[in-house]
Every structure is written in C-alpha cells, then in structure tokens.
Amino acid sequence: MIGIISEDAVSFVGHSLFNNFRLALQNYFDTNFKEVYNSNDLEEVETLIIVDEHFGPHVNIWKATEFINKLNDKKIKVLVFNFEKIFSSKFPWNEDHQRKLTQIQNLTQIVSDVNDASKLSKQIINKQLLSRDTELEFDITEKKNKVLFIGQSDKIYNSSYAYSRRYQLLNKLSADKSLPIDIVVTDRKFTYKEYLTKLASYKFILNPLGTGDFLNLRFYEALKVGSIPIQQITPDMKGMYKELDFCHTFIDADDLYIPEIQFKQLDYYLEDYFDDINLKSLI
Q1: What is the pLDDT, as a whole number, of residue 155?
Q2: What digits encode the pLDDT tens for the residues 203-219?
Q3: Plot region of 121 (φ>0 → left; ψ -120 to 50 → alpha; else → beta)
C-alpha cells in the first residue's frame, strides 16, 4: 500500500501544485493512496510519498520523532518531492528540516534547486509540471501584447528579503521605460482563478527566479494558458530543462527584451517525466 502526505485542495493551498502531483502519481502508479495524517496511519503502508516536505501542515506530520521512528521500525520506503531551496536558503529553517529528514533510513528525495542537486550528488531534479488531468479554471480574454510579472516579490522573512534578487530585477525593469511591462505583486491576495485569468490576459509572462534556481509552477501555468514565458535562468539550469525550448530565456536584466517568437504548446506532463526518470525504480 502507498501512503501519501499531501494537503492539496486548491481552496486550501491557493495553487494547483500539490494536486498536480497527486493526479500524476495516481495515473503513474495506477492506484489510489492512503491518506497519512499521523503515525497511526502508517499501518499497512509500504511506501510513503511526501509532496513538499517544507509545507507547514506536512512538516507537522512527518517531522515528529514518533513518526520517523515508526517509518524506520517498519522499514517503510519514503519518497519526497521537494519544492524549495534547502541549502543557503532565505529560509534558515530549511536546513533543519533537511537534517531531520535524513534521519529517515529508507529515503529517496528528489530536490528542485540545481545547486542542492549538485551538493547532494543527485542526477535528476524535481519538476513542477502539470498532470495530464490538471484543469486550470480561468476566464478567456484577449491577450495584451505586453509583458506581465505576477507573483511574490518583496515579502520579508526574519528581517531579510526572501525574494531579494527578484525584487532588485523588477526595480531595475520598472526604471527602464523601454520595456512594456506590468508588475503585479499579489501578496497572495488573488484567488487562483483570478491569478490565472490575469496570467492568461498577457502574451508574455516574465518569470524571474525567486528563492531557488528552478522552474516554478508559473512557468508551466503560463504555457497552459497560452502565454509565452520569459524565463530567468542560471547557466547551470540550461542542461536540466528541455522545456526551455518553449520560452525565451535571460540571465539578468540587461539580456531582457520582448522576443519575436511564436507560442508553442508544451505537450509534456508530470506523468511523462515520471516515465523518463523511471520513478518506480527509484523506490
């Protein structure tokens, strides 16, 4: 039996990321999962999947010493899909989560950040793709021939900017009037449908890097709603994502311009990625 820790209702978490993984994992393993909320739910579980070990409600479950002891006593295989930068993160508690996670003896963790992957000697990275069964709800509107940034920028944690490099990039672009760009800092006040509708109303979506070096959900959402991502990358990301063929990339503000490229639909989903990495073999 496969258990899962994934509080993924869009109305609860505000996005589709975790639900995308649930849908794709159900398709890939061709099974439903046992919901795991505490150590008592581990009876009969042979494999446990944790979708985002850093999400607060998930941390409250898996990080309990009693829970980890039971995983180890029962020799349960644990598969973790990570979505945050772990080391040298803007969130200092992430490394504490990682130290605790490594107490799990039968652990497979797929990390997102390319630098984390290098530090942990991992050959593959996690990807925030959509499932084939993902349905995004948004209103169809005529697309503006402009660039939109929509998302988080300058929220402060522990007296430091969590999105400092993004904040600096957006400030520089705001001062450069040659680029037709609208900047919408959501501060998590949009409903998911409102956010997607706004996303769908622009031809180009600026997607600067945030707290880690990886493609986030917004990249794949933009393609799904028919918009072209303008994606900031680092040199180390280039070889990790064939999806970059479907967007325009830049490294810093000086490289950024509106590209003369046509939209291409990405026909590649989480289920395909699980096949490519032979996910079953990893556990």
Answers
A1: 54
A2: 999 999 998 999 999 99
A3: left
**pLDDT tens-digit readout, 190-203:** 999 999 999 999 99
Rounded Cα distance between 42 and 276, Å, is 29
pLDDT greater at residue 165 or residue 208: 208
Residues 114 and 169 both lie in one domain: no
CATH number at residue 75: 3.40.50
For 250-279, how does the pLDDT look when each residue is reduced to its tens digit (9 = 90+)? Answer: 999 888 888 889 999 999 999 999 999 999
CA angle 262, 128, 265 (to 5 degrees): 20
Instruction: Provide the pLDDT confidence category of residue 55 given band limits of 50, 70 and 90.
Output: very high
> Is the same domain home to 19 and 119?
yes
Contacts of 197 (CB under 8 A, 6+ apart): 138, 139, 141
- Please indicate, yes or no, whether residues 125 and 149 belong to a single structural domain of this protein: no
Query: b/e per residue, 114-143, with b = 16+ CB within 10 A?
Result: bbbbeeeeeeebbbbbbbeebebebeeeeb
Residues 221 and 278 in one domain: no
Q: Given its phi and psi angles, is residue 90 left (phi above 0), alpha (psi -120 to 50 degrees) or beta?
A: alpha
Tell me the whole-structure pTM to 2 decimals: 0.94
Does residue 233 sit in the same domain as residue 153?
A: yes
Q: Say whether both 179 and 118 belong to one domain.
A: no
**Amino acid found at 240:** M
Q: Which of 138, 137, 140, 114 has the alpha carbon at shortest distance from 125?
A: 114
- Residue 207: strand pairing partners: 231
Residue 210's domain comprises 144-255
Q: Are 252 and 229 in contact (CB under 8 A)?
A: no
